[in-house]
C-alpha cells in the first residue's frame, strides 16, 4: 500500500508553468496563475505574450477596422491588469492607449459615464520607459503631480480628474477601458448553424436586425417573445447568436449608440451548461464572452449582452432589446 501511494504521488502531473512573460506568476494546476493572494487566468498570460495567436488576431482586427470606440464594463471591473487585458483581447480589442489629449478626454468621458473612480489603461513600464500594450507610440502623458512615484509600480490607472497614477499590475479590483474596433454599418457575417440548416445553404451570410422597440416605444420584451419575433421574420431568421468578437462588437456598438443597457441573445441555460437556441449545440469556452464573475447562476436561465459586449445570465421575464439574425 505504501508503494502504491508513492507511485500515485509520482504520477501526479506537475502544475503547468505560465510563459516567461507572465513574470512572477505560476499556474496552480487548474486555470489560474497565483502571485500571493491575487489570482489571474492562465489564459491571460498567454494572451499577453508576444507570440500569442489570440493577441495577434485581436490586434489585426483593430488595425483593419475603420472606426474605434472606447468601452468599459457597465457593472463590474477586472481583478487586476492581467485579467483586464484578457477581457479586452477576447472582445477584439486592447486596453486603451492614450496618444493625445483628445483621446484622454474621450476615455475620461466613458469612465465618468459609468461612475468609475479609477480605471486601468493600457500603459506598461518597460525598464525605465513606458510603452502602450497595443504598440502605439508613447508621445503623450498626463501624470498627476508626483507621479509616477515607484519603480515597483509598472501599470497605470486613470483618475476622475483625467490624471494618471502608476500602480502595481496585480492590484485591484478596478474598472478598465478597452479600445475596440467597430464593424461598418453594412456588416455581414457567415450565418449561424441554425440559420444555415434552415435555408439549406452552407455559404449563407446574415445581417443583424435590431428592434427599435427598446428605445422608440419604450417597451422592452421578454426572452421568449424576442425569440418568437425573430422567427416571425421568416426565411430562417432567429435570435442573434454572436459567436465572434466582431459580431459581438457590432451589436454592442448599437446599444452604445442608443444608450440602451442590454439585449437578448439566443443562448439559454439547461441542465449541464449553456446552449445555442438555433442548433441546440453547447456553448464552448472559446465562443463565450462572459463578463467577469459571470455566469453566476442568479437569477435566471437566459443570457443578455451588455453594452461593452460581455454577457450576463439573467431571468428570462425581464424586458430587453431584441436582436435578430437574418439571412441576406
Give the helix/strand layout:
Layout: H1 2-11, E1 26-27, E2 32-35, E3 38-41, H2 42-48, H3 53-64, E4 67-71, H4 81-90, E5 93-95, H5 101-113, E6 118-126, E7 129-132, E8 155-159, E9 164-167, E10 175-176, E11 178-182, E12 189-190, H6 193-199, E13 205-210, H7 213-217, H8 223-231, E14 238-239, H9 245-258, E15 262-270, E16 273-276, E17 302-306, E18 311-314, E19 321-327
Parallel strand pairs: 6-10, 15-19
Antiparallel strand pairs: 1-2, 2-3, 4-11, 5-11, 6-7, 6-8, 8-9, 12-13, 13-19, 14-19, 15-16, 15-17, 17-18
> How large is the count of helical segments?
9
Low-confidence stretches: 1-66
Largest sheet: 8 strands, mixed
Kindly estimate the percentage of residues that lie in beta strands according to DSSP: 25-35%
Q: Would you report the number of β strands?
A: 19
CATH secondary-structure class of the largest domain: Alpha Beta
Amount of helix: 25-40%
Give the overall silhouette.
elongated
Estimated radius of gyration: 22 Å
Description:
With 328 residues, the chain is of the alpha+beta class. It folds into two domains: 67-181, Roll (Mannose-Binding Protein A, Chain A); 184-327, Mannose-Binding Protein A, Chain A (Roll), CATH 3.10.100. It has helices at residues 2-11, 42-48, 53-64, 81-90, 101-113, 193-199, 213-217, 223-231, 245-258; strands at residues 26-27, 32-35, 38-41, 67-71, 93-95, 118-126, 129-132, 155-159, 164-167, 175-176, 178-182, 189-190, 205-210, 238-239, 262-270, 273-276, 302-306, 311-314, 321-327. Strands 12, 13, 14, 15, 16, 17, 18 and 19 form an eight-stranded mixed sheet that branches. Strands 6, 7, 8, 9 and 10 form a five-stranded mixed sheet that branches. It has a three-stranded antiparallel sheet with strand order 1-2-3. Strand 8 (155-159) and strand 9 form a beta hairpin. The N and C termini lie far apart (67 Å).
Amino acid at each position: 500500500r505504501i508503494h502504491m501511494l508513492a507511485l500515485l504521488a509520482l504520477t501526479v502531473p506537475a502544475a503547468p508553468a505560465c510563459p516567461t512573460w507572465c513574470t512572477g506568476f505560476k499556474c496552480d494546476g487548474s486555470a489560474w496563475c497565483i502571485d500571493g493572494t491575487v489570482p489571474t487566468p492562465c489564459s491571460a498570460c498567454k494572451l499577453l505574450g508576444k507570440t500569442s495567436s489570440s493577441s495577434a488576431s485581436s490586434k489585426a482586427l483593430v488595425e483593419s477596422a475603420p472606426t474605434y470606440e472606447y468601452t468599459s464594463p457597465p457593472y463590474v471591473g477586472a481583478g487586476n491588469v492581467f485579467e483586464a487585458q484578457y477581457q479586452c483581447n477576447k472582445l477584439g480589442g486592447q486596453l486603451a492607449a492614450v496618444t493625445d489629449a483628445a483621446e484622454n478626454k474621450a476615455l475620461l468621458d466613458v469612465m465618468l459615464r459609468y461612475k468609475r473612480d479609477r480605471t486601468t489603461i493600457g500603459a506598461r513600464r518597460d525598464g525605465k520607459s513606458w510603452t502602450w500594450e497595443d504598440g502605439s507610440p508613447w508621445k503623450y502623458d498626463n501624470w498627476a503631480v508626483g507621479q509616477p512615484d515607484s519603480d515597483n509600480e509598472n501599470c497605470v490607472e486613470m483618475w476622475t480628474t483625467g490624471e494618471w497614477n502608476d500602480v502595481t499590475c496585480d492590484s485591484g479590483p478596478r474598472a478598465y477601458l478597452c479600445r475596440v474596433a467597430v464593424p461598418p454599418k453594412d456588416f455581414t457575417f457567415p450565418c449561424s448553424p441554425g440559420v444555415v440548416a434552415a435555408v439549406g445553404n452552407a455559404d449563407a451570410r446574415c445581417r443583424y436586425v435590431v428592434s427599435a422597440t427598446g428605445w422608440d416605444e419604450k417597451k422592452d420584451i421578454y426572452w421568449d417573445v424576442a425569440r418568437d419575433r425573430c422567427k416571425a421574420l421568416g426565411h430562417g431568421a432567429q435570435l442573434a447568436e454572436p459567436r465572434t468578437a466582431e459580431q459581438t462588437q457590432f451589436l454592442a456598438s448599437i446599444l452604445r449608440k442608443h444608450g440602451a443597457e442590454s439585449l437578448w441573445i439566443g443562448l439559454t441555460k439547461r441542465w449541464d451548461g449553456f446552449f445555442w437556441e438555433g442548433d441546440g449545440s453547447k456553448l464552448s469556452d472559446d465562443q463565450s464572452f462572459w463578463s467577469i464573475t459571470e455566469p453566476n447562476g442568479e437569477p435566471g436561465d437566459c443570457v443578455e449582452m451588455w453594452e461593452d459586449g460581455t454577457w450576463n445570465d439573467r431571468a428570462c421575464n425581464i424586458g430587453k432589446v431584441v436582436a435578430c439574425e437574418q439571412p441576406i
